[in-house]
Amino acid sequence: MADDDPMTQQEQLKDDGTEPYGKFRVAKQTLCSIAYMCQERVFAEEVDKLEEIGEKLIEEGLCTDFKQGLTMQDQAERERAFGHNRKPKIEPKGYCELWLGALNDFTMKVLCVAAVISIIVDVTTADESYRQIAWIEGFAILVAVIISTNANAVNDYQKERQFQKLNEVADERKRVTVVRNGKKCDIHMSEVLVGDVVQIFEGMEIPADGFVLEASDLTSDESAMTGETDPIKKNVLSECINKRNQLKEEGAQNTAGHHDVPSPIMMSGTRVLSGEGKMLILVVGDSSCAGKIAALLRQDEPEATPLQMKLTAIAEDIGKFGLISAILIVCVMCLRFGIERGINDDWENYMVVTIIGYFIIGITVVVVAIPEGLPLAVTLSLAYSTKQMLQDQNLVRKMAACETMGGASMICSDKTGTLTQNKMSLVNVWNDDIIEIDTYSEKQQLTSYFPQNFQEFFIQCAVVNGSAMLRPEPKGSKTEIALLEFIERCSMNYEEQREKYPASTKFPFSSQRKRMSMVLELDGGRRRLVCKGASEMVLAACSQYHSKGNGSIVPMNQELKQKVEKSIETMAGRALRTICLAYKEISAREDLTTKDNKGVYAVEQSDLTLVAVLGIKDILRQEVPRAIQLCRRAGIKVRMVTGDNKMTARAIAKECGIITPGDDQSIVMEGPDFIAKIGGVVCTKCRTAVCPCARDSTTAKKENKDVRVDTIANPQEFDKIYPHLDVLARSRPEDKYALVTGLIERGHVVAVTGDGTNDAPALKKADVGFAMGIAGTEVAREAAAIILLDDNFNSIVKAVMWGRNVYDNIKKFLRFQLTANLVSVGLTLIGAAVLSQEILKPIQLLWVNLIMDTLGSLALATEPPTEKLLYRKPHDRNEYIISKKMFKFIVGTAIIQIAVVLIIVFAGDSFLPEYPDEYDLTAFRGIKKRYKYSDHLCKTTYDELKKYSEESGRPLTLIPDITESRDVKKDGTCLSSECVCHEKKCYEIMCEECDFETSCTIIASGRLNTPEGGRDYAVFFEDSHEPSRHFTYVFNVFIMLQLFNFLNSRRFNDEINIFEGLSKHSAFMIIVPVIFCIQILMVTFGSKAIGLYGNFGLKIQQWLIGIGFGCISIIGCFFLKFIKEDMCCECGSKEINPMETEHKIIALKGDHSSGGLARRYSSLRHDQNPFGAAHQQHQH
Fold this sequence. Notes:
By secondary structure, the chain is α/β, with parallel strands linked by helices. Helix content is 44%, strand content 14%. It is built from 38 helices and 30 strands. The strands form 6 sheets. Strands 10, 11, 12, 13, 14, 15, 16, 17 and 18 form a 9-stranded mixed beta sheet that branches. The chain crosses the membrane at residues 98-121, 133-154, 318-339, 351-384, 818-840, 846-865, 886-907, 1030-1047, 1068-1094, 1100-1120. It is an enzyme of class 7 (translocase). Residues 49-123 form the Cation-transporting P-type ATPase N-terminal domain. Keywords: ATP-binding, Ion transport, Magnesium, Membrane, Metal-binding, Nucleotide-binding, Sodium, Sodium transport, Translocase, Transmembrane, Transmembrane helix, Transport. Its main location: membrane.
């Protein structure tokens, strides 16, 4: 609430509005009830209530003057009594707040802690020569976190600022003219008060619920609030009372339509279609019709989407796996170390560093196990998909909605403007027989429906006889516009036809007359009355019938009349609005002035000749039936939720395929009946519809209240109804909201489509809300997660495909990364247990986790969707993301890769080729070549050395003052890699020259230690810090295995052909070669920085061997496809209540708070608004 608000929230609560407040004589709830009666009217309930109260009491009770307006001397007291019209101010989030929100993520926090520990331990325990670069590994993890969190923060920050600019521009236009102290003044809509007299004019938005004081041809468009597509007539109370009384006298009270009696109430959030006048403000703020919806929109939404919950579950499981593995590794290594020290009975102080190293390995395992690339991968996947969806006319405002739509099992769709085109079209014509009009064809021929000599009568009755127009923009009755559009599609200009047949007299349409007529002046001085109107009225006035078949005019006998009436019933059963066309040849002396009490002229009441019966309706979008069929095939149930009556709604539902032929269990129910059966929505804690609990967490914290969580009052009844509920007719905002609430409670992922303000609460409540970009109101678009730029229901099917594609792609990436992580952890565990070393260094694993996984996510997450995705049912909201089949491939592939890498580790020094290079003259010169070649011809025992000396004639070289050799050089010792000792004498090792054909051809072991506990390559490494070629092989084979696993991960349903669709996946074709090129650069030039052999890494022959080993990943997966996943263990499933969860696993969640609604049109620049004029003026 604004700081200058004279009324505190506590003061507001003191008075519930049921009794008059202070000097005012009318209670707030009384005024509210009048507005609500109008919104839910059946006949003229609000007229009855206003008549009961009386205009005089309203004027005096509100302390206002219908002519002079308010005096503004009692503003504070007036606001205390009736409230104000100001909306809560939404403060934009700052960049730091958004960044901290992205950082408040389980994975991110664990990575930060692991990175800090890694930096501290690495720097404090590293040698002097290595300490300068020891911090790089931990710092690189922090860099990954910073990049991921800032990417999210920048995106959200841009959305916040973009909305603020758009909001400021739109807000400036919201001004109204009021009368205060007898003078007109312009004020902002938020400043109007109860008792204000407001000027009404065409096109304006009604700021609050009000009572009409003056009216001149006043009509309003209430489709945004009630779904009613027809213009609603408004009038002053006296005229409304007269019309009501007239219908009662005629006995038509029970048969009259909802709007046959004009209403004196203007509802907030609606728009004036025509006319002008004045209104008195009765209800403002959250109590108004639009305000009730706004209050629902301020509630909190679930903390996370279904995918986020699945990732939370798997992150916890991976974290536990990593922690257990780390503890196991450290325990195994420490146990082995203790046993070895006990057997050798030695202990040196430097061994403390060795023990610390074991703990470093344990921390490394935790870091490796956690898929730190996952948050960025998911963000990249969603960002790519949302950009591509924009090309499919889906503007995704909340990135997470993209993946959520993939799991949608229910779609609750509005009818008007969503399933239908929100414009009337000529569908049927009856003359002799019912003729079907091709409503979707842009070009038609009138001769296809009427012979040439008959067309004149049709054009005169349907087109010339009218007041609507198409240019410069459509204006007038939607029924008339439908006829004009039909004649234009027949390549005729309606304006030319009206000029061709001038009218001398016009009898305009009115709700009482239910017809309109004209007297046309024809050639030869002839005069013709043409008439069109309600079918039952015009047909009753017809005494003849003009047949198009033979052009004859025949008397209207009883049999013919019954035939016409039957055709009218047939059209009405298909939810068509029927009108009759008729004409009458008249003389110059015809009486054109006499009329009855309904305004029907005598000339119109008899002797008319029937031309045709026309059937008109708001037709389906052409693509809707197939889209609904695809949804049905995809396991998604589509429900229609509309403000229309049951008969119309049922007909449309059958036409579009929501109700299928022969479905005896289908339920079509009206909203009030639905609410009555299920008991409506109540607070979970208070068990009442209205309770003191706060709607959002911010208010709850500020006022120390509980946050309200909605639930269905009678869940047992809801469970009986909803499985077969296909259509909810005459639905109000609370009906739609209740339906969505109940579906979500039962674990369904619910999507809601709509275009009106009345759809907003359900759009906000749903997992994914779709708003129409063209016909949708501003409130609806604010509440929605996705905006359909083309208002096309078919775009929802594309959104489902993209959503499922995102989910599948994330599963593909998970399969790839978890396989790599499992292999990494497995190798680290085995290396620690058997060799007391890491097989893959942390910096190498970082390359896999950060660079390769980031690019890998782009490669796997950018595969375009296909219609095959719709041939399966949606995934369960609570299913574990790792299915049995995925488990089979992840574990099976990991075992194969671990086996291949271990063969290279433990047997590579017996078969992998080695080649000479410049290092033979430097790092591996002389006797040190034994650490490069396993077949080195060096003499490493005293007997070999003595024999070689005798055969070659080279004398043994005695090393003075040295009596023993050790793996670690100390005083009085020499390195075992340099000397051989015998009987307290030590001699230099000698080697034969290599011929590189029969010797020095096999790579030497790069294992630091032997499985038995002795020191191997460590003796050389600690002296030179030169990584081995052997473990460069190991690293490269590991990467090649992952690279080929990219191909395996493209499919996870046992598909044999993993190359299917690869040519269409351009990103994959580019990224995988790029990763291979980066790997070449890493191996060739990485050197000591990443623990690889320094002299250009590997030879070309060694690269080919690595690629060959990498292919085993594909071959192994091929055979895994034939193993039944039933043999795999059940991964498990977690039940998560979406209304209560507090998990936030990845920083990609759209802001679902009240401030989150402030992010509209997030991907658009202000000067490229695709909504165009529809954003400024919503017209149906």
